[in-house]
Amino acid sequence: NSVVLVTGGSGLVGKAIKYVVENGSGCKNEKWVFASSKDGDLTDRASTEAMFLKYKPTHVIHLAAKVGGLFGNLSANLEFLRKNLEINDNVLFMAHKTGVQHVVSCLSTCIFPDKTSYPINETMVHNGPPHDSNYGYSYAKRMIDILNRGYNREHGRNYTSIIPTNVFGPDDNFNVQEGHVLPGLIHKIYKAKEEGYDLKSNTSKPFTVWGTGKPRRQFIYSRDLARLIIWVLREYKETEPIILSVGEEDEVSIKEAAEQVAIAMEFKNGFIFDTEKSDGQYKKTADNAKLRKYLPDFKFTPFPIALKETCDWFVENYETARK
Ligand code: NDP
Question: How far is the CA of 238 from the centre of ligand 1 (A)?
Answer without folding.
Answer: 24
